[in-house]
Amino acid sequence: MTVHFPDDAFGDPFDVHALPLPRPATGYAVQMLDTDTLLDRHRGTFLPVRESTLDALFSDFAEARNAAATWTRKHCAQPDEHRLAIVPASFDPVLKRHVLIYGVLCGQP
Asked: What is the pTM assigned to this prediction?
């Protein structure tokens, strides 16, 4: 049985280029809430933003959403308890690491 997710299962869809951000974002990333880890596009695992081999920037929201849904189907017994969010992110070429524009998002307010 395939699990279907509502459009906002991983956050409300947004256009990264239309957001008034404190620093520019260059793509979309899937963040594990309460951590500084992002979903690597090729390995399908979460790695810290400081990991030099991390490749976490998706070109559009739909691509990030599909990756989040795929990870959730594989790793969560209860899909609605996934703790993932799609966030704006960038890559800093000087520091050679990904940047979470909003920092570490909390799962609970």
From this structure: 0.91
